[in-house]
Amino acid sequence: MATIKDIANAAGVSVATVSHVVNNTRFVSPELRKRVEEAIANAETPPNFVVKKKMQEKERKKNKMLMEEQKAIVADAGPEFYLYLTSSPFAHFDSSVEQELRKLAGEQGCELVRVSIESEGMLEFLTCSLINSSKMKGIFVTASVATEKLSEILNSVSVPVVIIGNSIPGVACDRVSTANEEGAYKATMHLIRSGHENIAILCGSEDREFNRERIEGYKRALRDNQIPIQDQYIVDDLKGKVSVKIALDKLLNDVHQPSAIFVANLDTIYHVYNYISEHEIECPKDLSVVCFNDFSWATLINPPTTTVKQDVGQICKEAFLCIQDRIKEIQTQSEKSEAKTILLPNQLCIRRSTSGIGRGPFGERAGDISDLVLTEEEQEECQRHTFTAAMSFHYSGKSHSLLLEEGIRNIFDKFNIQIIAVVDAHFDPELQSKQLRSLKLLEPDILISIPTDTKITSRAYHEIASGKTKMIFMSNIPNGFKANDYVSCISVNERSHGRNIGRGLGENLRKMRLTNVGMMKHKSEDFYATRQRDSAAEQIIVEEFPELKICDTKTFVKAEETYELTKQMLEEHPQIEGIYVSWDAPAKYVLNALTDMGREDVIVSTGDLEYNIALNLAKGGMVKAISAQMPYEQGEAVATVAVKALLDEVVPSYIGVEPVYVDRYNLQKVWQKSYKEPLPEEIKQALNWTCLNEI
Question: Is CATH 3.30.70.100 the right assignment for the domain spanning 494-629+659-694?
Answer without folding.
Answer: no
